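Task: encode each sequence below as structure tokens.

Item 1
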Amino acid sequence: MNDKRTSRNYLLLALAGGLIWTGAATAQVYTWTDEQGVVHYADMPDDEEAEMVAIESRRSNPRQIEQEVTKGKAGRQVDNAVQREQAEVDAERNQIDAQNQAARADGCERARAAVTNYNTHRRFYKPLANGEREWMSEEEVAEAKAAAEQAVEQYCD
């Protein structure tokens, strides 16, 4: 009999605790907008047009919060690593672009000098392996000049 009373007392205590917990979890909140357009929130309606807002509350889980925070930190670390890697790739790409631009500028300068040379001189030669010169024909000079003009178009914007 004593065990039944104890069980019943525990049951009543659990029900009372549940009711208290439920009351805290389903608190009533009202909202309304006044004449100036300001939105108000309160636990008691202050206006005839106040509407009850459904708010759910639940007990927080410290382990879950810690996991989410840790997961967020890990995600930020990965994001930071990805950003650093992307910055390195961008820097390398910029360096390659600068080298290509310098090479184009050098090619442009050489091509323009060649065109100027073909326009200002009459005779041209090709050096031979034995150190002698072979004079170019008018057709060879015209081909070389056309190639230099094409190089100007290619390297000079």
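Item 2
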Amino acid sequence: METQNERALIMSPFVPNLIPDTALYVCPEGKWSPLDSGEWPLIPFAYSTWAEEELSWYDNCYIHSGLNPFLFFDITGAEYLDLLSAVSVNAFDNFPVGKARHTIICNEEGKLVLDGIVVRRAEDEFISMCLPDPALLNRMAGNKYSFVSESSRCKRFFYQLCGPHSLEIVEAATRQDLHGIRFMHTMDAKIAGKDVFILRTGMAGTLGYEVHGMIEDALSIYDLLLEAGKEYGITQLGRLGYVNCHAEGSIPQVAEHYATPFDPAVFSGSLPRDSGLIYRSPIDLGWEKLINFNHDFIGREALKTELEGHHNTMVHLIWDKADVLKVISAAFEAGNSCDIMDLVCDFDYVRNNGGIHIDAVYDGGKMIGASSGRMLSAKTREMLSVCTIDQDYAVEGKEVEVLWGNPGTRQMRVKAKVMLFPYIKKDRNEHFDVEEIPHPVF
């Protein structure tokens, strides 16, 4: 049996090996697990400064590979949709070939277990991304549904491109007009003769696409995307940039902004460790419009009761600059025990996504919410976070206070103002009219 000291590390087969130019390598995003070979993959931590990388989703385009190997399953059999309807808050009555759907699975208490994407590739063929093993779900349901599934986490790759030039770069690489791809839809294409499909989606809020293909083509396609993006200033995105794009993009992310009972994390921050806001419901995250109550699913009654009563929602907090500077300056005080505030974000350099920082939010002595994903925007130079908050406080400009500091340390209050979602309001991917971009001529 392999021991911890015998675990073999390998440069990730999903991203080019940059040694010796890049010397700092880390595990991929998400839960670190070995490849099918038993080797543990490593990827570059960064490609440039965090600020330069993070400006990419505003000014040019990033390419991100760090989620590979991803939790992919290939499924054959239309009854897979019947299973998803039984376990998720979503309905799949209107789910044509080529469509992708954000799929949310909760427990009986209405708390998220996992959320991800399902893509319908053919009438009876599907790819699930960041969702539980379909066979496991079927066994839990008594094997009522007829389909075949297999893990493809080490067989598939995907690269995320996001920014105003993302469409032009993907079109240049495929030499195909992709203007017709609607948000959360796919289109088949080829890059240098290799089969791929393109999904219009993204994590930073601005125009974005994903390129999906098979592992044997990964590195060549990555290089071709970089080459196609040169004239547009394509930027390779490292760890801190990817962590922060979700907060600025107003897209709450598991293991960054909240935990799940399915995969508990190590917590830091001022939120009490027995708080009910360690785990979140879709309503806590502002996703209530994705819940379809016209079918039975796990957690339906709990979510219906929650939505009909006084509940929380999701907002941004813009942290007061003067109070932030007070916390930072406290680090220079002799004997100070206040947690040091990193300007970039609250990244856990030991546990990666296994550590989550969540701070309690107050109105006077009343705790009203939980803030996470704190970051300094390289574009706006604002300190911002995402926050699950009592619905009464979801008012633009409402002033609240974030409690900074772990329990048992010196704690300081930081004023913050509520900003309603989304943070990036202009040219968001889901609404952007790509006809503003000239069609390619090849």
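Check on item 2: Residues 218-229 form the longest helix (12 residues). The mean pLDDT is 95.
End of task.
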